[in-house]
Amino acid sequence: MKILDRLDKTTILSILMISLAALPALVLPTALAQSTGSSIGSSTISARAPVYGAASKVLLSGPMHVTASELAKPAVTFKPSASTPKYQLPYPKPTVGTGTAAPAVKPSFTAPPVVSCPGTGCDTISTSSGGATSNPLALNAVDSGALYGLDIEPPDQGLCAGNGYVMEVNNLGELRVFNTALGSVSGDITLDNLMGLPSIPASMGGPWSSGGDPSCLYDYDNGGHWFVTEIVSNSSWAQEGPFGGCFVAKVEGCFEGIAVSVSNNPLGDYNVYFMNANYNPSEPGYPQLLNDFAKIGNTRDAFLVFYDEFPLAYPSNPGFGGGFFNGAQEFAFNKKALELGWPVTEPVGTPNPYFNVVIENMGLIPTPDGACSKVVDGFAGVDCWYAVIPGQSPDPSQYDNARGGSGFMLGALDFLGFALGIGSGDNRISAWAWTGLSNLLSINCSTCSSIGFRGQLFTGVQVYMDEGQACLASGGGFCGLGTQKAGPIPLGDNCGAYGLSSDTSCPESGLATNDDGFTQASYASGQIWGAVSTLINQQFASSTETHIGAAYWVVGTSTFDSSGTFSLTDQGYVTGAHEDLEFPAIGASDGSTAVMTFTLNGLQYYPSTAFGTLTTASHGLSPNVIRIADLGRSPQDGFTEYQGYPGTTRPRWGDYSWAIYDSATNTVFFATNYIQSPNCSDSAFLKDPSCGGTRDPNANWGTSVNSVTP
User: Fold this and answer.
1) Model pTM?
2) Counts for the chain of helices (H) and strands (E), in that order
3) Cα atoms found within 13 Å of the Cα of residue 258, Cβ hemisphere only
């Protein structure tokens, strides 16, 4: 649920910049180098030494213990007044300056990449599930609305699996647990209750409330533990309503909740820690910083956390160089301390000598195009590292224990497009590594100076471009909305009556893709897998169509272990012939295969859950077939499709999908957003806005949870 996604794409955002030094030539398979049509190379990225020390630098005292019985408690719902609409965008839209900017050094492309149809990269679409198992009625707007008393878009997706269970998490803040056959073994649990937020004492400003952007993972070490994270707002529903606290620049109002199960049972007790985004008083924008779009990963020794940092009081209290984005923030905690529930301070007030953290503020690392603090056309922060996503590994056999224990990340480089929505794509990606993470186990982090953070830039890779602008990609330009098949839209037909527009009715819009940044990284068998959204020109015999597809890369780490240099194993495009896809995510197996999932939609299909199979040498789906696991039943008919019409407010879709491999069952589990139920007619909707309990009045999104043997 990235804050940038709520900004008008002509609005200036701040981002950080970085300088490069030369590095040995990239090791590439000959076939790959020949297939790209361009010279692929690499260079190191100059990184600063990470900060290290006691975890109390970042974490509030704790942990807070939440019992299993508390998970089943009723939600604390928001009760709006008669004048308050029963729907809510995740964040208020900041007021910022506008302008145009160009980086000092930037690849420039005038058109999206081209794939030939039929052919590799241009995939046929099959309604056959290809052997996938599905629970088509996972979390949805009805559950979310019932739990919290309001409707929310986007419904960001999280999924994790292990020890015979599968867990799905979603915005606003809910989870459900399934068995590996995808049968539900729990009801819908609020993340408020999981995090113990209703019990936060008044002395700490409690009770607090969920703020979204959930993630989860299962880690097999130390007996097995479930991690669930989300933004936590230092405000209560009753006092400030939804998305108060840090989202309105409240002083020290924003945290990242980290709930860690006490055992390998996802429905047991949890220990909960809270990261304070304002832990550093010298950080520009303190004490009103936001930990946006957090993602998590794991290694043998570390629990990895990433988030993008925004100074929410901009422009009165700006970030680096006077901008309003401070770039990607990377953390590595002593994993054992979290899994065993160690206190942050022991005795009270004294940092626990065994509970350590290392921190890399990527806002201080220059990019190839400049630095986060550099002022471009009157604004800072246009070129900053953003969304540098840590890799998740499915089980301990897949950890990279070389170089003292390593953890890996992937990042995109279309800074201008990410920040302003006026870029022109890129042909570069970056890979990053923590090394020496075993030193987190040293007393008082005494050997943590041996922990390193380094990056490598790949140049000349396949082009990707998606600036996420609020117009249909089929129209060309930098538009980034996926087309929707025409169908009943009772909310759109009655948007005026629901306070969404001054117009009586509103036309259906598309599905958002946001931009061309990574949203998930998967690490297994010495390979890091990641995908981004991109516009693609599908070239048919007598016509060309512009659609939204995916570009993906497989980055090898064996050469990093031996020589300190990553290699590019494979790359390719995925696009459904004549259709669009949104938010690709990849789950890598413990072999050479992986599964990519996404939402599929277009003139022939309502938003549907779809997937395909990749290998480390396939250069695209293998075979070139997209499988539909769950067929969408109607158009997206949620309030963000119409709110602000005919203004510039964009429609929203889930900001990320998720896929994860479970070695115990040799299964990739995957989940994304689709439309579960048919929309009812206008007349039926006016009598019963729930359409017989299949939707909430202001939202009709749903999710599915699926599995397939790769």
Assistant:
1) 0.93
2) 10, 41
3) 28
